[in-house]
Design brief:
binds coenzyme A; N-acetyltransferase activity; 7 strands; cytoplasm; YpeA/RimI_acetyltransf; alpha+beta; Aminopeptidase
Length: 177
């Protein structure tokens, strides 16, 4: 998860590139799971999940700024938002860098493939909007998230000391080409 202070980058639209990692999802509880772009009506549920997931949650306004952007996706099950991912693509020294800024699943729905489903959709969306690689930050102690990211081909790139107000972040990256 990245700081909400850096959510103002814009998207860049370019060629489609397809992700090449195949992931199996647990079949139970996810039969009706769908992943779609976030809408304003989803924000309350998104913020509730955010508050239940992080010690320093993004505020409502941070999510509001991403409405309409293709990298803001929600996972919906039985009509309820059960998770979300926020990502974008920014121009960086002549390259298009995808950035997964935030991802969380409702505490009651974790461990059932929702996080995997969100990343499975998010990475191709970022690729389709020009990203040639995707990066993210994760708390050093967040073994669950690191496991998930490794499963999707992300590798540790560098450490950012004290990124999370007392805890280091590990920057992980996955090349898409
Ligand atoms: C990280 C998170 C998004 C994963 O979502 P999820 O729906 O539980 O993930 P999945 O069910 O798709 O699991 C994906 C993989 O990650 C692993 N994993 C997920 N949470 C884990 C945990 N707490 N400990 C160990 N492994 C974990 C699973 O074992 C699974 O791997 P496997 O298929 O090889 O068993 C979810 O746990 C969450 O919302 N955590 C709180 C917010 C957070 O930390 N977000 C990441 C910020 S960088």
């Amino acid at each position: 998860m990245s700081s909400p202070g850096v959510v103002s980058e814009r998207f860049f639209y370019r060629r489609p590139v397809h992700a090449n990692v195949t992931v199996q999802f647990p079949a139970d509880r996810n039969d009706d799971l769908s992943i779609r772009p976030a809408k304003r009506a989803d924000l309350l549920a998104v913020v509730r999940i955010e508050n239940a997931s992080f010690p320093q949650p993004w505020p409502h306004e941070a999510f509001e700024r991403f409405l309409g952007e293709p990298g803001f996706l929600v996972a919906v099950s039985d009509g309820a938002v059960v998770g979300y991912v926020v990502g974008d693509v920014v121009s960086n020294v002549g390259r298009q860098l995808g950035h997964i800024k935030d991802v969380a699943v409702h505490p009651d729905r974790r461990g059932n493939g929702v996080g995997s489903a969100l990343l499975s959709r998010s990475i191709p969306v970022l690729a389709a909007h020009g990203a040639d690689s995707v990066k993210l930050e994760v708390r050093e102690s967040n073994d669950g998230a690191k496991h998930l990211y490794r499963k999707f081909g992300f590798e540790p790139l560098r450490r950012v000391p004290d990124y999370y107000d007392g805890e280091d972040a590990i920057v992980m990256i996955r090349k898409l080409e």
